[in-house]
Amino acid sequence: MADMNYAIDDLTSFAHNLLLTAGLSPDKAQAVAEVLVEGDLLGHTTHGLALLGPYLGEIESGSMRKDGAPLVVSDFPAALTWDGQRLPGPWLVLQAMEVAMQRASTQGTCTVVIRRSHHIACLAAYHERATRQGFVMLLHCSDGNSASVAPFGGLDAVFTPNPVSIGFPTSGLPVLVDVSTSATTNGMTNRLHKEGGQLPAAWVMDGHGQASRDPAVLFTEPKGTILPLGGMDSGHKGYGLSLMVEALTGGLAGHGRADPREGWGATVYLHIIDPRTFAGAAAFNRQMDQVTAECHASKPARSGQPVRTPGERGLKMKADSAHAGVALYPNIMPLLAPWAAKLLVPVPQPLN
Fold first, then answer.
1. Which of 46, 124, 155, 326 is the most exposed place for a label (fewest CB within 10 A)?
2. How far apart are CA 31 and CA 19, in angstroms?
3. Rounded-to-integer distance, Cα 159 and Cα 154, Å
4. 336 is a domain residue
């Protein structure tokens, strides 16, 4: 199957209507729809609309709560802790961003940690909302309900891929970093396993401690694990970063792997910094413009492949999609078609 291109507004309306019919309020449905489509716009095809079907299943089963607001666990001027009550993760993160940006504009920084959120989708999908307003944003998450990543030197899974992300402005395109602290993600290994594919490199380890490109080792006994970032040689680096995420999420939120499992979800660390309250926005941009210019000017290691900054390719894809439409991964719409039929929501027509 080839990718099919769809108009951005059509996909957003489609996702919104499915979520609305499933029982989410209009504001929650719109937040989730926008974040999922943004993931596909940026090229994160396992963390965009590919998640919509599973989210609808979570709503149907009651594992994702449809109504309510987060409970405030603690509230200091520049530090808040929320209990997300298993509400939709994208909506919770967008709510937290609004509070954090407002407070950071007067106090310099603000951090919000959220425990018991549902899954928050693609981390990169949030950052441009902050960078457009001149903010730096860090966003990390973990999920104490499951484990698929082994600590360096171990066979037993302890962590989820525990992604870390940061977005910051420049005078041109923002820089958007979104990486897992593991060698790959659950979404990618699940997709390749279903398709009978192989990973680009030995990013997983079988249950006997042998590195492998075959995601099937994660689903056979003794079950394998995803390797930490750095793999068999330098996975101590990813292992350390995974532990950092656990401290900033589960540790600060006071809820994680030490608590009973409730189902697919997330514990979230969100930190907003306003450069205007430090050396100033002009000074910040001057420094970031220089370092990104030096990156772009670096002689390419491979002819015809100039150096890019993180997020640059995704932002170009997003800009192109405004005219050509969103190129959905081939299996996404077929997986959503049964939900559309069940909820009586019309499927959008492709542009091509």
1. 155
2. 10
3. 12
4. yes
In this structure, what token pair is assigned to residue 86?
């298993």
263 half-sphere exposure, CB direction, 13 A CA radius: 15
Amino acid symbol at 77: P
Cis peptide before 163 (omega within 30 of 0): no
* Model pLDDT for residues 235-263, shown as the tens digit of each residue: 999 999 999 999 999 999 999 999 999 99
**From the CB of residue 35, how many other CB atoms can be counted at a distance below 10 Å?**
26
pLDDT for res 326? 94
The two structure tokens encoding residue 332: 């996404």
Determine the Cα–Cα distance for residues 305 and 313; give it in Å rounded to an integer: 12
Please state, in angstroms and rounded to a whole number, the distance separating the CA atoms of residues 259 and 238. Answer: 24
Residue 292 lies in a domain: no
Q: Which residue from 253, 194, 189 is spatially nearest to 215, judged by alpha carbons?
A: 189
Residue 196 located in a structural domain = no
Report the chain's terminal Cα–Cα distance, integer Å: 13
Q: By three-state DSSP, how is residue 128 classified?
A: helix
CB–CB of 204/189 below 8 Å?
Answer: yes
Q: What is the pLDDT of residues 299-346, one digit of tens each?
A: 999 999 999 999 999 999 999 998 899 999 999 999 999 999 999 999
Tell me the C-alpha distance between 97 and 95, whole Å. Answer: 5
Residue 323 class from Cβ within 10 Å (0-12 exposed, 13-18 middle, 19+ buried)?
exposed
Beta bridge partners of 273: 109, 136
Q: Which domain holds residue 329?
A: 4-183+227-282+312-343
| Maximum pairwise Cα distance, the chain | 56
H-type helices in the chain, by residue range?
Answer: 8-22, 26-41, 52-61, 89-107, 124-131, 186-195, 231-246, 252-253, 281-297, 312-324, 332-343
Question: What's the pLDDT tens digit per position in 172-223?
Answer: 999 999 999 999 999 999 999 999 999 999 999 999 999 999 999 999 999 9
pTM of the model: 0.96
Give me the helix-helix angle, 52-61 and 332-343, nearest 10°: 40
- How many domains does the chain contain in total? 1
Domain CATH code at residue 27: 3.30.1370.60
Q: Is residue 301 part of a domain?
A: no
**CA 75 to chain centroid:** 26
